[in-house]
Amino acid sequence: MLAFRYRDKGTVIHKLNPFCKLLWVVSVLVFALIFDHPVYLLLLFLSTMPVIIAATVRNEWLSVMKLTLYLCIAIVIINMMLSYHGSHVLLEAPFRIPVMGTPTVTLEAMVFGLAMSLRLLAIISAFAVLTFTIHPDDLMLSMIKMKLPYKSVLVTSLSTRFIPTLVDDLECISDVQRSRGLELDKGKLPQRIKSRMSIMIPLLCNALDRAVQVSEAMESLAFGSGTKRTFYKEIRMSRVDVVTLTLGFFTIGFGIFMCLSGFGDYQYYPTLEVISMGGLEWSVLSLLICLLLSVVMLAFVKRSSDLD
Amino acid sequence: MIRIENLTFRYTGAEKPALRDVNLEVGDGEFVLITGPSGGGKSSLCRCLNGLIPHFYGGKIGGRVEVQGLNVMRHSTKELATRVGMIFQDPENQLVAMDVERQIAFGLENIASPRDLIARRIEESLDTLGIADLRRRPVQELSGGEKQKIVIASVLALHPDILVLDEPTSELDPKGAEEVLGTIERLNDELGITVILIEHRLDRVVHLVDRLVILHEGRVAVDGTPRQVLADEKITRIGVGIPPIIRLVQGMRSGGINMDKTPLTVKEGRSMLESVFQNAKRATLRETKTLNGNPIMNMDRLWYAYANGVTALKNISLTIREGEFVAVMGRNASGKTTLVKHINGLLKPTKGTVNVAGIDTREATIAELAREVGFVFQNPNDHLFADTVEEEIAFTLKNLGFKGAEIALRIDEILERFNLVPHRHQYPRALSGGEKQRVALASVIAARPRILILDEPTRGMEYKLKNELMGFLDEYRNQGNAVVLVTHDVETVAEHADRVILLSEGKVVVDNIKREVLSKALLFSPQINRLVQAFEKYGVRGDILTADEALEIVT
Predict the structure, then answer these.
(1) Where are the domains of chain B?
(2) Residues near B526 by Cβ (< 8 Å), separated by ≥ 6?
(3) Which of A51, B91, B141, B257 is most solvent-facing, going by the fewest CB within 10 Å?
(4) Strand-by-strand arrangement of the B482-486 sheet
């Protein structure tokens, strides 16, 4: 858990303007949602890789991906068990369930589950880059710049600020109760839920006590004074940043235009469509991926201009 | 200037008022230390000074509080923030930002200061506290003492005339505490800031302050210079943590020795008490028991490395016997907690073996070991979750497989012993701090473990509660059980332990009876030992550790 925190590693990705980083994540998110084609989704996922490497957060990323993989396996299995559409039947149950029909496992359901997993992987991978490389306070500042209400943003940022503290609390309380002979994996379900309560109750109560103390401290630092607040730090926009942002918006527009023109469409049910992509489609797709990558990779240009 | 007149306050829903008829006046630039037993109204009084009472905490208030000419009832905490700075116990709960500069800027941003002013004040605050080197470090990686200094810097950036500190060191280790107290002293001395400090450990600060105020049951019980207050008979009855050297002087007075002066520091004691010790008797000291009980815990060439590769314990071999009171001491991160977590199986050795009552900890679950080893953690709030005190104690017993009649019997017995009978059906988390500590301890002791481990149970604890706790531990040890205490508190160890294990960087540096370890160890020695070291030339034994021992040879 402790590895899932922001740490300033000083790479160009860490130093990149937070707006550019946010725009990149939003682009990945949008593309992952509008395109259905498995090849598109795969390339989208792969395109986050160079960013991970450039940000030197490979180990943190791997630990997140490991967790996501479990989720993906669950998605594929559940989809195969519950979706009986599709013409290529791999397995068929010898009985019928009323309303739902005969349980079958089809190739289509499996491939659809895999494609959904790719979609999830791409999105989570992009968000992982964001959490590992953006200073939480910078994220908060960009939210405020985007005209979100300060108090809501502050509350969100405070709750992330206290996650590590809560994790420490959790570890300590679990040590306390295990030392009192608590065995978490013993007994039937009601018993297990009850034993979890011996950890959850102190955790929540302590967190509430903390919350009161934090607000007391903030009040004592003049928080909520009537006047408009100033911000000591600001996000500076260099010329490269403006170019990057423009390029970013163009990329999103380009992707949406592609989608509207019929690219990236794919039919899973009732029969898997044959994957046939023409030369035009390949080149348009590569262009999109290059554009997407350049939103982040322009950061390297910035560094060389910094040295001038 | 602070002027408090006839201040009375009762929290909403409370039975008794927290403050009754308090009258107090504090002049500019004064350094006032407030102390007294818990529940005496110290924190409430502080909260009145910047308007947290009555604006944040509701209740019934009477009287008048005026700070720098402003009536606190009419001015909110936010308005008072530029005049009164508040610092609380736990630095963790006062840090809003994740980087140092933004934390210091937070208050100024709130009052809409221009950016260039903020920049200047950040530099200024960092330099005043001498923490400029921390400015680029992520806050979560700093030590407790460093965090608390950043909190002070962020309060100081608002340029308050008055600093109010509510037990600022109770969550810190001795080094952090020392640094923070030093900083506070400097702010008062060099910048003339009025300081109001709540603190339990008088020996660390009493010589620095102009004035000592004892609050007891919501009233000002004693108020005056430290020398006046500490010479007052009343404070012993109230139960204030009097520094050992003062206890020695008090004992001398009641033993018929004429002492007109009261020393506040070891240095003063050495000159004021010289004549007394010149004629001291050569008494033999009551030796602590020799260590010959049956061994119940044995560590053999224990090594432990955390998953991240850090080696926390290196080749540790030691034995703990029945009826022993062992203190485990050492700097932060020296491996104290890691060591004791091996005794109840929370951690298993990477190499070597740990054997408890004939069981190899690698082959037993924590629950199995819990019958032999009880573990009390620092914060009782981490223990308590049940609906009643009774159920809280029953939880441990049920976990360990005790059955109905036996459980009922043990609960009755333990409630009686810990004076918890009247609270039997109450919600444990709603009890007072001392009662919570007793419930936590009772819930562990109910299983009658043969080894009882306590991890820094006295940190931030006031004198009376500490005494009560140590009384329980002494008794438990005398029943033939072993008590293992992880602590930084030298005075407590000097009074109660038999043996001290000193760790450094994961190795046992010393493991011997306390008299050998604690005497003549420079700053590591208890106050009385540092005093008597000066009198060795008169034949006084240099290994006297406590006020009682010293009294024996002079009266």
Answers:
(1) 2-237, 244-286+529-554, 295-527
(2) B244, B490, B491, B493, B494, B518, B545, B546
(3) B141
(4) B373-376, B451-455, B482-486, B325-330, B499-504, B507-513
* Chain A residue closest in CA terms to B97: A137
Query: d(Cα A85, Cα A104) in Å, to the nearest integer?
Result: 8
Axis crossing angle, helix B115-129 with helix B100-110, rounded to the nearest 10: 130
User: What does the alpha-carbon distance between residue A130 and residue A124 come to, in Å, rounded to a whole number?
Assistant: 10
Q: Tell me the chain A residues in contact with residue B77 when contact means C-beta distances shorter than 8 Å.
A: 219-220, 222
Segment B460-486, tens digit of pLDDT: 788 888 999 999 999 999 999 999 999
Query: Which residue in this structure is represented by tokens 């009390």?
Result: B376
Provide, as residue numbers in chain B, all residues whose Cβ is less than 8 Å from the Cβ of A207.
Answer: none
The CATH number fitting domain B295-527, selected from 3.40.50.300, 3.20.20.70, 1.10.10.10, 2.160.10.10: 3.40.50.300
Measure in Å the smallest separation between the Cα of B396 and chain A Cα atoms: 5
Find tokens 């740490």 and name the residue: A7
Say whether pLDDT at B287 is over 70. no
Domain B2-237 and domain B295-527, same fold? Reply is yes
Please list every residue in chain A whose beta carbon sits closer than 8 Å to the beta carbon of residue B118.
230, 232
User: For the sheet containing B84-87, what is the strand order?
Assistant: B84-87, B162-166, B194-198, B31-35, B211-216, B219-224
Q: What is the ipTM of this complex?
A: 0.90
CATH for the stretch B2-237 = 3.40.50.300
